[in-house]
Amino acid sequence: QVLRKGLQRGVALSTGSLLVYGAHKLISGFAEVHASFKVEEVIEQADYLYGSGETEKLYQLLVQHKNSDDAELLWRLARASRDLAQLSSTSTEEKRQLAYDALEYAKKALEKNESNFAAHKWYAICLSDVGDFEGIKTKIGNAIVIKEHFQRAIELNPKDATTIHLIGIWCYSFAEMPWYQRKIAATLFATPPTSTFQEALRYFHMAEEADPNFYSKNLLFLGKTYLKLNNKKMALLWLSKAKEYPAHTEEDKQV
Predict the structure, then answer these.
(1) Gene Ontology terms, cellular component aspect (predicted)?
(2) What are the tens digits of pLDDT across the range 76-131?
(3) Per-10-residue mean pLDDT, the chain, length 255
(4) Residue 98 in domain
(5) Which of 7, 92, 128, 206 matches a 20 to 30 Å C-alpha distance to 159?
(6) Do the Cβ atoms of 218 and 234 come closer than 8 Å?
(7) What number of helices (H) and strands (E) belong to the chain?
(8) Eight-class DSSP state of 142
(9) Quick one: pLDDT at residue 37?
């Protein structure tokens, strides 16, 4: 009788434990689903603000999630930090801090998801930005790493016109590089990185084919590259398109 009562109590406890465990799993499941929905909601809101050109609001939304482990949130925060740094109202010291913050967010995004094309893209962009503060030697020294990340981004997403454009900018910069910078490159690399205006032109056209009229700066650089190649007729065509491009951002106005 004692044994029977003990067994019954044991079964009752086991059933109770299972119910508690089941409830815990159910609550945990709801919490996980809620967390994922929250990330999706933040990303959806962030993309809306980005599309609306609300740079400061976008940054304030995303910086709250700077400790997130989500690569999608982190690369968007890197982009928002960089966009805020580009505003004319941002002070020089703030620009510097934002540039370094953006690089850290992009680096973390890459660590969280190495297969995320946008993490590679924004890591390369932010690494280039930091070079502007650290001098030409650092900028040239980072050049190969920057190009490798752009190329990896294109491998992961061959249709991303912006990344293709940025490789074009990389090629244009090295084709245009003055002699003293070439000397610095020669001291940093056994085989210094080089490029040509023809190679830059090929990437700018590839970007335009991937997404026609997507970016005022791509139109501008098509015109500039044709000028470098002494083709004034084609230069005029693309510079006219750049001039007529509807200005949505400060960069569009500068273009």
Answers:
(1) mitochondrion; mitotic spindle pole; spindle microtubule
(2) 999 999 999 988 899 999 999 999 999 999 999 999 999 999 999 999 999 999 98
(3) 48 46 47 59 94 92 94 96 92 95 97 97 95 85 92 96 96 89 80 89 97 96 98 98 90 89
(4) yes
(5) 128
(6) no
(7) 13, 0
(8) T
(9) 53
Any domain includes 7 = no
Q: Structure tokens of 38?
A: 């929250």
- Dihedral over Cα of 198, 200, 205, 206: its sign: positive
Burial-class residue 29 by CB neighbours within 10 Å (0-12, 13-18, 19+). exposed
Q: State the pTM of this model.
A: 0.78
> Which range marks the domain in which residue 111 is found?
35-134
In a domain, 53, yes or no: yes
Q: What is the 3-state secondary structure (H, E, C) of 205-240?
A: HHHHHHCCCCCHHHHHHHHHHHHHCCCHHHHHHHHH
Q: Which of 228, 203, 204 is nearest to 218 (CA)?
A: 204
| Cα separations in angstroms, 247 against 83, 139, 151, 195, 212 | 16, 30, 29, 31, 16
pLDDT of 103 reads 97
Cα-atom radius of gyration of the chain, to the nearest Å? 26
In a domain, 186, yes or no: no
Are residues 155 and 110 in contact, defined by beta-carbon separation less than 8 angstroms?
no
Q: Total domain count for the chain?
A: 1
Q: Please report the pLDDT score of residue 34 as a whole number.
A: 45
What percent of the chain lies above the pLDDT cut of 70? 85
